């Protein structure tokens, strides 16, 4: 495994990391999580992504129990969580969801620590921007989590460049802990935030990226070329919002073409797509999903593929994907 | 229920909220409080106002026990308390009352947390200004409560605009938690602080308002038009200071006229008076009082009345009340 | 009892307060301390002065046990301690004494809290200046005690005006808790620090004064006019350093003259001397000593004497004492 | 024993101090450590140097147990530790070693406190510079250790002057605890950092020095003049990296010449070498090694030798060593 710094921060994360969205609790129980985390750690993966909202809090519980069973020294892994949507199990309350206000955030970190069974969480994120809370209020709450020893680093997910810079500037002015990373969607068809909007932030504030959805929710595996197969994420009831993009004809045709390049390298289309993300030096780690160890091994194959991606191949890939970039 | 931000802060409070002054412990025991809070929460009210001095500390105890029995997730409600007058039960001591000095404030928050049986209080107020303590001393103590995790937001009650701005500026300069809300008296006959004195603060520092006495201590219900009926607040021995204003002839005549407008809308005068307060967008929440569930339901009716208050009706109301504004 | 603010701070202290130097543990055991503190509290005295070094730590222990037995609400009394000389019982170590470095100060506050059996101490002082420790190091340590909730206010004792101002400026620049009071020697024959050196500090930084030795170690009682009587402080073995000034002929002659004025007012010379100190509005409280309740009552008589001190009498007193001022 | 301030800081350290590198756990068990520390404390030594990495954590454990058995008041000794290389016993992890990132540092201090069995460590060092972590991240973590009460002072070891100044400036700008000391190698043949590179730092930021290797790993004892004797540090398997410099012919010849001067003073060459280091007033303390009490007594003899080092003798020493300075 290779490691990169989280932007300018001193923390080192593996180029590939493991997410828990959709999978934990839904597809993966504690036993399976133990198996997956053990395999990932063996392969050198050291970052495990999570969020309060994944599986309504169960994802944190499953991961926490699995980590406890693995009993690795705490320095061996980096765990994240993210705050914004709140927990459905707490019922409907106006300060419970869709917010980054102090009341929500201060109880959210305590809840996550309890569900994980950890004394601190390495990375905490604002899962989405909240236009209805002053950035200063959010920055103070996130920084306070670090001061209180409940978290080590904080960042954002899917924020605008302007809001990230505002958060950084407020922290600098008031001597608070600054945001160090952003978690954007980033794959062959979704590139604008990472490549254009954030362009100045990498040097100016040392922003690191932990990117999600390298396979465009599965589209880049090629498995949706003939519609939505049973048993896939696209077929899950709660994932209906993904169906249209997963069955986009032009994109599926492009995926077929990318498959040809992948085949030339003895790789799968998915491996090619993941490898492509790692080629961007601004990316600190690519969060990949896997519900079975075999899938994890498959993803890991992307690292070798990345070594084969010459400038010429990168150009061929770009020629196929660039015209279809939609975000 | 509709919700508003607490000024520029991200916290959301219900347009109507429930106070405990006079009522708790005096008129409302724990059983009754449970019933009232349950009804309020059911109606979407999420802010419950309190103060150290209400019923000599018993109001916090009653509310705390009632909240414990209701056992709602903490995110569902916002609780306040206020510090200034101290607790008579602690005996007579020169640093026990009429002060906002550090010694008083630091023990006051600990006392309130204990009486409430809560781990933190959402909103803490300086109940009155203290001209004998430097604002910086008070700002540091209030901000320290937040840093220590004992409170989430702090504000003032019945402070001058100049003192609020001074507190905000000290916090900004020394990187402390800033005041975010003020609790002023505000009703048809008492309007100057909210409408004139604080005018610049709403935009400049994002001040939120949690207003008290929407019914002018009951005057705006119309029940004092023929003097002080037995069993009313005005008849309580400790409320003698209210009697003169409650029996003011001109104001009672105006209340009669307002009653005519209310009747046109199928509403009570009290509902009209509460509705009028909610029409001011600077008001975050109107703190209402109620000693029985029926009164609470009555108050809630004000929300529908507010929807009926056209600019024309607002002008008619103003024409009646404006000449009698005395604060 | 009358009360004054501690300089510009909001804390209120009684005009007369009670010290424990020399007396506690040496002349006063826990039972006697309970009696004295009860009498003092009854008389409205709310400030009890102490120091780590008094009676080698025993003075804090005796006062702590007495306060515990009295079981008064914490708001009723203000307790101080002071750090500089360390505790002999800890043996000889180079960082144990004559220092205000961080190592010493951080253990000193913890030791005092333990000896007192209190959760916080109201006022903590740097007992003397330490030219061998940077003022910033001392300011940070004192401020940290307050941030950690172990103390409420901090100040200095017998520091130069320049050092006090430097400490204040460092705290202002780094947003730390500022020093609010100084404890200087102040009596009819020792006036320069209070009246000249600190002159600008009262307005500029709001410095409060808790003055010690209003009777010049007993000289101003008149009891040393014929030498050192047995049983007096001047006769104590450890107080040899006081003997020369206690038997100064010119000063004892002046004390006789002051006694004449006192007699005119039906007061003792000691009462006159204490009353004179309270006439300076820059003095927040005069720390008096007493080993028996009768002495305490005597001291309290000074308050009535102060009311009788007309400008004319003040001039007569000054004419006698001013020429002999030696500090 | 004589004592010096740690640079401008108020902390006082003995001119000679005792290190634990190589010796503890390897050559010295708990019983021997008790004997050595007792002898050192008796001689007035008050600073005991340690590091997380020494003997893989065992050095901290041995020293902690020995200190516990000695049961001296905490003010009597100053203990250090240093962070950078991590603990091999925690296995191989990318954030476990060769780093000064927040994740590593925050767990390192907790681990050291546990191994020592202490509530705080007096001096904590960044054991080496980490070019892959922003200095601000490291400064915040080190300062946070102090704010949390886990450490009293922080510093660096073998950092460049530029990096030390950067760390100091970041702390000043953000109002954090500043670095106060640096631990460089310093002996007759290794002088550039202390004498040239840091020259401006002594006055500008008050840097103190706790220097290591006064005997150049034993070279300056003269025992390597005929090669590597069995049983010496140079013969230890893990110390192979030292052999070349230990057997340098020119340096060993110079050591012989220094031995002549030492003999004139009735001293050993080692005593002369240690004495020479203490002559530099920028040095706060010279960390010496000893695996037996006799060695410790030998080292202590250097203090008397230092008193004999006249300017003339210092010139003679310089004439011998200066041409061979290699660092």
TrEMBL record, chains A, B, C, D:
Q: Which UniProt keywords are present, listed alphabetically? A: NADP, Oxidoreductase
Q: Which Gene3D superfamilies match?
A: NADP-dependent oxidoreductase domain
- The residues covered by the NADP-dependent oxidoreductase domain are 16-321
Keyword GTP-binding present in the record's keywords: the answer is no
Q: Does the keyword Zinc-finger apply?
A: no
Q: Name one Pfam family in it.
A: Aldo_ket_red
Which stretch is the leader sequence?
Answer: none
Q: InterPro entries, alphabetically?
A: K_chnl_volt-dep_bsu_KCNAB-rel, NAD(P)_OxRdtase_dom_sf, NADP_OxRdtase_dom
Q: Which domain of life is it from?
A: Bacteria
Q: Which PANTHER family does this chain map to?
A: HYPERKINETIC, ISOFORM M
Describe the family membership recorded for this protein in Swiss-Prot or TrEMBL.
Answer: Belongs to the shaker potassium channel beta subunit family.
* Name under which the protein is recorded: Aldo/keto reductase
Q: Which organism is it from?
A: Pseudaquabacterium terrae
